[in-house]
Design a protein that fits this description.
With 341 residues, the protein is an alpha/beta fold. The protein folds into two domains: 160 residues, Medium-chain alcohol dehydrogenases, catalytic domain (Quinone Oxidoreductase, Chain A, domain 1, Alpha-Beta Complex), CATH 3.90.180.10; 128 residues, NAD(P)-binding Rossmann-like Domain (Rossmann fold, 3-Layer(aba) Sandwich), CATH 3.40.50.720. It has nine helices and 16 strands. Strands 3, 5, 6, 7, 8, 15 and 16 form a seven-stranded mixed β-sheet that branches. The radius of gyration is 21 Å and the shape is globular.
């Protein structure tokens, strides 16, 4: 391959100010350990991307804008550097590349090479399941555990799916009927609106839940988490309690819950990126994603249930606006980049 490639990359210059930057990629300049790829499809991670699009307070220090957006990308390899041996032109790869038509990366940044039997659209959702998988692993969930999942956006639903796959009895909380139905299809035993919490408490009984996984930012949902957790239970936090809320309307570490039940509260969602040389990190990001891809391929996880539609990659801004308006209760959208190539 010798022709220059005009690549389009989505850049968020400021809140609600999305542009595409064009750059030229030269296959002839590819480094020995690099690869050049064309995105087939990427998927929006709504929590992270809409927060950036709206200008929510950043989760970590540093420059906020301009910034790249997106990290769920499946691409086809166009060319490889001469030192790359495990990946070949024509292979499809899963990467953390942002929403863009083409890119070059070190070959070691490819998260997985996809088998022929898995659809690109399904594989692009793998990391969304990974966040729920990490919550399941770190919370110490065991088969037979009672688990409460608060919030049924994309991460809530993927968490329900992985908790159910792990053998838990899963209860979910959401005020929206459509995601409650999806949660039931993903294996939840029952779903409740927030106003129906007394009915949930009755189902749980006095022992309450061994694990509560919250994907919400609202303090009101944090109260539900405290009230749902049983003695020596774990609250695994996939959301960001208090983000964009100015006041805490109650004691978030109320001793009646936190101390008297000796609760464990932990942040989840980040796994070690790579295995270590002595095998002490078997549940690292790469290995986890490989497991998830296998479960997707086997039909044990159904990513298509998360996807509410698709847009051309160049219409990313329209996709964000559709998600913001919540018309028809969309969960997320796929972006098709093949027209940009």
């Amino acid at each position: 391959m010798k022709d220059l490639i005009r690549a389009q990359t989505a850049i968020l210059e400021a809140p609600r100010d999305l542009h595409f930057k064009e750059e030229t990629l030269d296959p002839a300049s590819l480094g020995d350990g690099e690869l050049l790829a064309a995105t087939i499809v990427s998927v929006i991670s709504p929590g992270t991307e809409l927060a950036a699009y709206n200008g929510a307070p950043p989760l970590r220090p540093g420059v906020v804008y301009p910034r790249l957006v997106g990290y769920c990308n499946v691409a086809r390899v166009l060319a490889c550097g001469k030192a790359v041996s495990s990946i070949a032109p024509g292979d499809r790869i899963l990467t953390f590349s942002s929403h863009r038509s083409h890119f070059r990366i070190p070959a070691t940044d490819a998260l997985a090479v996809l088998s022929t039997g898995i659809a690109s659209e399904d594989a692009a959702c793998a990391y969304l399941f990974h966040l729920g998988y990490d919550a399941v692993l770190k919370s110490g969930l065991r088969p037979g555990s009672d688990v409460v999942v608060i919030g049924l956006g994309v991460l809530g639903l993927t968490t329900v799916a992985l908790a159910a796959l792990s053998g838990a009895r899963v209860f979910a909380i959401s005020d929206h009927e459509a995601p409650r139905q999806k949660a039931l299809a993903f294996g939840a035993a029952a779903c409740f609106s927030r106003s129906e919490f007394p009915q949930l408490a009755e189902r749980l009984g006095t022992a309450r839940a061994q694990v509560v996984i919250t994907t919400s930012n609202a303090w009101a949902d944090w109260r539900l988490a405290l009230e749902s957790a049983g003695q020596k239970g774990t609250i695994a936090v996939l959301g960001f309690p208090g983000r964009q809320e100015e006041a805490i309307p109650f004691n978030p570490l109320d001793s009646a819950h936190f101390y008297m039940r000796q609760l464990r509260i932990m942040a989840v969602g980040m796994a070690p990126e790579l295995p270590d040389s002595r095998g002490f990190l078997p549940f690292n990001e790469r290995a986890n994603l490989q497991r998830l891809l296998e479960w997707i391929h086997a039909g044990r996880l159904r990513p298509a249930e998360l996807v509410s539609g698709r847009f051309p990659g160049a219409q990313l801004g329209d996709a964000y606006e559709h998600l913001m308006r919540r018309e028809g209760n969309p969960l997320t959208y796929l972006l098709d980049w093949t027209a940009e190539q």
